[in-house]
Amino acid sequence: MNHLNDDEIAALGALLDERERALKSGVHEHVSRLLEGGQPGLTTPAGDAADQAEVGLTREHENLAVVRDVRELRDIEAARERIAEGEAGICVDCGEEIPFARLEAQPTATRCVRCQSLYERTHAALPEVSPARED
C-alpha cells in the first residue's frame, strides 16, 4: 500500500526525529521560563497597568508557543503511526500519493498539495464581524 521506498521511509523517520527533538527542547524552554520566572515581573507583582499587561502578554505568548509545539508533536506521533501502518504518503482526502518532496518539506503532511489547498480555502478562518453600533 505504501508508495515510499525503504530509503524514503528512513529519511522521513529521521526528519520526524529531528523535528521532535527541536520541539521538545522548545517546549522545555518555554515551560522553564514560565515556571522559573525567566522574564522580569513574571513571578513578582508588576508595577503599573502597562507592566501588568506586558507580563500577561508574555505569559500568553509562552503558553501559545507550548500549545503550538504540543500540537506538532501530536502530528509527528500520527505520522509515525501512518508509517507503521504502511499509510505514509497517502492523501487522507483523495487517496492519491503524496510526493516524497512534499513529505521532505512537511513530514507530517496528510494531504497532497491539491487537497491541502482546497482544505485551506474551505476551512479558512473568516474575519470576525462585529455587530453595527447604534449611537
Automatic annotation (TrEMBL):
GO molecular function, one term: zinc ion binding
SUPFAM superfamilies per the UniProt record, alphabetical: DnaK suppressor protein DksA, alpha-hairpin domain (SSF109635), Glucocorticoid receptor-like (DNA-binding domain) (SSF57716)
Alphabetical keyword list: Metal-binding, Zinc, Zinc-finger
Keyword presence, ATP-binding: no
Record carries keyword Metal-binding: yes
Top-level taxon: Bacteria
Any single Pfam family the record assigns to this protein: zf-dskA_traR
InterPro entries: DnaK_N, Znf_DskA_TraR
Zinc finger regions, dksA C4-type: 91-115
Domain Zinc finger DksA/TraR C4-type: 86-121
Matching PANTHER family: GENERAL STRESS PROTEIN 16O (PTHR33823:SF4), RNA POLYMERASE-BINDING TRANSCRIPTION FACTOR DKSA-RELATED (PTHR33823)
Protein name as annotated: Conserved hypothetical DnaK suppressor protein
Lineage of the organism: Bacteria, Pseudomonadati, Pseudomonadota, Betaproteobacteria, Rhodocyclales
